[in-house]
Write a structure and sequence with these properties.
With 127 residues, the protein is α+β, with helices and mostly antiparallel strands. The chain is built from two helices and six strands; from the N terminus they run E-E-E-H-E-H-E-E. The strands form two sheets. Strands 3-6-4-5 form a four-stranded mixed sheet. A two-stranded antiparallel sheet has the order 1-2. It is globular and about 40 Å long.
Length: 127
């Protein structure tokens, strides 16, 4: 599989760390990762946003590993935040985790199923 980030010159540029469009060619497998919550295997949920974000990303990575994929296979990520006040910390952790990877990205401010969860992350990966 090969991916190509595309950003049209006819719309505002993305604010770093993602692509407006991701083209995938040579795809043999598509994996849809359900929303991953900030809960550890032992059932604990960290109290602060940064720790919750790192846990949710760790859970995304665990699901990708189970599908024989890595973060390199991500083509689309949707992050649901419980409050927009977490936007900067979300971007910081996302950039730490993704590094130079630029999947298509959407961040939505919304109510989350469990009030203890400050975010949830879902993803699409291809190989």
């Amino acid at each position: 599989m090969k991916t190509r980030a595309i950003n049209s010159p006819d719309v505002p540029a993305p604010a770093g760390g993602y692509a407006q469009v991701v083209e995938a060619t040579g795809v043999q497998r598509i994996v849809h990762v359900s929303g991953q919550i900030p809960m550890a295997l032992d059932g604990t949920v960290p109290s602060d946003f940064v720790s919750q974000s790192r846990q949710a990303w760790a859970n995304v990575q665990a699901q990708l590993r189970a599908a024989d994929m890595t973060l390199d296979n991500l083509v689309k990520v949707t992050i649901f935040l419980s409050d927009r006040r977490y936007a900067a910390e979300n971007r910081q952790v996302r950039n730490e985790v993704l590094g130079t990877r630029t999947p298509a990205l959407t961040v939505i401010i919304t109510g989350i199923f469990d009030e203890a969860w400050l975010l949830e992350i879902e993803a699409v990966a291809m190989a």
